[in-house]
């Protein structure tokens, strides 16, 4: 079994250059820097300004960096799983655009839609492809251009999100890798966080655009409550299943939606704050990109054998956790 575990051999990222500060948001909506920082932990976020560039561009850049880090060439990749809620098009899949641009001529690719849990779902499924022996090298990408679906006149959401991409290369290896995962979905609360129009139920019309239904909507307070419970519960669930205590966990890699949710999760897990990867202050919530972005930012501090818990909660509702032993 150990010889067929999926290990992360390369990590990459892409962040747009443009920094949008809380101060700038004050000129669009009735908000202020103090409110945003104290309620969310966010100081600034990156925005992909170039109108000719979209999620595929950021995903491509992150993928190329991950391949380089792994020392793997694009034509060795068997599969590409791209988690996103902001694909360039409804179809074809953004993974197909990335496959072409990076030259992954032997790979098949598809998009995975699980909002903020997208990267975790993609990572665990990529891991199973490796474990089954059907794939030798899998590229897992989390990328979102949230600024494309954020309503910059809605102060309850526009302050939260940013644009970015992160990617990892998975290969078969020994001595660690993806040990376990727990994922959940609850469609009962599908409208707590969603994009009302633009899909096959409500295709874009003059009316849907006039009503701003092509932008994301969130019942923030309800999602906050669910996320605080869900992310902590699922993190404890995976620790319990693998007999891990807070002391055994070297790093918590939480989805970056709100600093208060992250703090609550770490507290319930019994993990010191120094062991929690937090970069929400600089990037905001980049949906599928938050977790690989953390892995990128902390990659030089990770040691072989570190027990890492990845944990996320998002629209769907979707939530989950992965137990990973670092082996690079
Ligand atoms: O990644 C996917 C999952 N998403 C999440 O996990 C996000 C979860 N939700 C949250 O992070 C928080 O609910 C928010 C940050 C969105 C909001 O924070 P909150 O502490 O739940 O605030 P609230 O919605 O209870 O609003 C408190 C007050 C309200 O005013 P009143 O009714 O008390 O007068 C809001 O209208 O704050 C007001 N408010 C704002 N004020 C200044 C809401 N947004 C803003 C704003 N600036 N941007």
Quick structural summary:
This protein is an alpha/beta fold and 328 residues long. It has helices at 22-26, 33-40, 55-70, 94-102, 118-132, 206-210, 220-241, 259-269, 280-283, 290-297; strands at residues 5-14, 18-21, 44-47, 79-83, 108-112, 137-145, 163-173, 177-185, 193-194, 217-218, 251-254, 307-314, 318-325. The strands form 4 sheets. Strands 1-7-6-4-5 form a 5-stranded mixed sheet, sandwiched between helices.
Which homologous superfamily in CATH is the superfamily of the largest domain? Thiolase/Chalcone synthase
User: What does the average pLDDT come to?
Assistant: 97
Give me the Rg, rounded. 19 Å
Poorly predicted ranges (pLDDT <50, ≥5 residues)?
none
Structure, explained:
The protein folds into 2 domains: 5-175, Peroxisomal Thiolase, Chain A, domain 1, CATH 3.40.47.10; 180-325, 3-Layer(aba) Sandwich (Peroxisomal Thiolase, Chain A, domain 1), CATH 3.40.47. The protein has a 5-stranded mixed beta sheet with strand order 1-7-6-4-5, sandwiched between helices. Strands 8-13-12-11 form a 4-stranded mixed beta sheet, sandwiched between helices. It has 328 residues and is of the alpha/beta class. It has helices at 22-26, 33-40, 55-70, 94-102, 118-132, 206-210, 220-241, 259-269, 280-283, 290-297, and strands at 5-14, 18-21, 44-47, 79-83, 108-112, 137-145, 163-173, 177-185, 193-194, 217-218, 251-254, 307-314, 318-325. The protein contains 10 helices and 13 strands. The radius of gyration is 19 Å and the shape is globular. The two termini are 19 Å apart. α3 packs across α4. Helices cover 31% and strands 25% of the residues. The site of oxa(dethia)-CoA has 19 residues, from α2, α7 and β12.
């Amino acid at each position: 079994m150990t010889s067929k575990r999926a290990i992360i051999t390369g990590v990459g990222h892409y962040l747009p250059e443009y920094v949008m500060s809380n101060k700038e948001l004050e000129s669009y909506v009735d908000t202020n820097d103090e409110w945003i920082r104290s309620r969310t932990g966010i100081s600034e976020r990156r925005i992909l300004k170039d109108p000719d560039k979209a999620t595929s561009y950021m995903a491509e850049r992150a993928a190329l960096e991950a391949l380089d880090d792994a020392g793997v060439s694009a034509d060795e990749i068997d599969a590409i799983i791209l988690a996103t809620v902001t694909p360039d098009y409804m179809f074809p899949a953004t993974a197909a655009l990335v496959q072409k641009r990076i030259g992954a001529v032997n790979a098949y690719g598809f998009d995975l839609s699980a909002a903020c849990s997208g990267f975790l779902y993609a990572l665990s499924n990529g891991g199973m492809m490796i474990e089954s022996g059907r794939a030798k090298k899998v590229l897992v990408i989390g990328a979102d251009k949230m600024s494309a679906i954020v309503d910059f006149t809605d102060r309850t959401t526009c302050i939260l999100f940013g644009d970015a991409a992160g990617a990892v290369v998975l290969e078969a290896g020994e001595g660690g890798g993806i040990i376990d995962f727990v994922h959940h979905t609850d469609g009962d609360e599908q409208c707590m966080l969603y994009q009302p129009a633009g899909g096959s139920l409500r295709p874009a019309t003059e009316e849907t655009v006039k009503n701003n239904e092509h932008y994301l909507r969130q019942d923030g307070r309800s999602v906050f409550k669910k996320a605080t419970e869900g992310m902590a519960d699922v993190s404890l669930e995976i620790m319990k299943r693998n007999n891990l205590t807070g002391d055994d966990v070297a790093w918590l890699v939480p989805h970056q939606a709100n600093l208060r949710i992250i703090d609550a999760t770490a507290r319930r897990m019994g993990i010191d704050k120094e062991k929690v990867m937090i970069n929400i202050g600089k990037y905001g919530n980049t949906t599928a990109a938050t977790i690989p972005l953390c892995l990128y930012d902390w990659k030089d501090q990770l040691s072989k054998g570190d027990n890492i818990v990845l944990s996320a909660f998002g629209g769907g509702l979707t939530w989950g956790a992965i137990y990973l032993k670092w082996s690079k």
